[in-house]
Amino acid sequence: MGSRLAERIRETQDEVLATWEAGVRTLASAAQAPGPALFDQVPELLRWLADRLDHGGAPDEERDAFGHHHAIERVSQGFDLVEVIGELGLLRECLLDAWVAGPEGVEPADVRRMEVELDHVVALVVLQFVRDRSAGDAAAPAGA
User: Fold this and answer.
1) pTM of the model
2) So where are the chain's domains?
3) 53-92 pLDDT, tens per residue?
4) Domain covering 4-136 in this structure, CATH number
């Protein structure tokens, strides 16, 4: 039997993404970003998260690739680290709101697992930002 929270994520994905996009659009760097560029891999992250909650076997590599690519994409779009952490925090809020709106049958352990997975994504994004910043600083001419 699958996770009720995973089912809830799948059932409300469009609503979660619409609410998330409206909130993210308030960030300075996202205000003018085209929809496809803004969404990048977020729908895939939601699918991965639901699969992970259902089976526990969705590969870490997919989550790790999301964190890596999401950070690179956001840097290229002019986002700063605070904005990216904010957008991922907003995604968490949207997912929690979807759970609160339909909590029947959702196990608290699944909510904790979702939180841990999202925390891991945030950590990966921060790490990639730091790596990109370090690489950029190393490539900058002395005194720049």
Assistant:
1) 0.85
2) 4-136
3) 988 766 788 878 887 888 788 877 888 889 889 999 999 9
4) 1.10.490.20
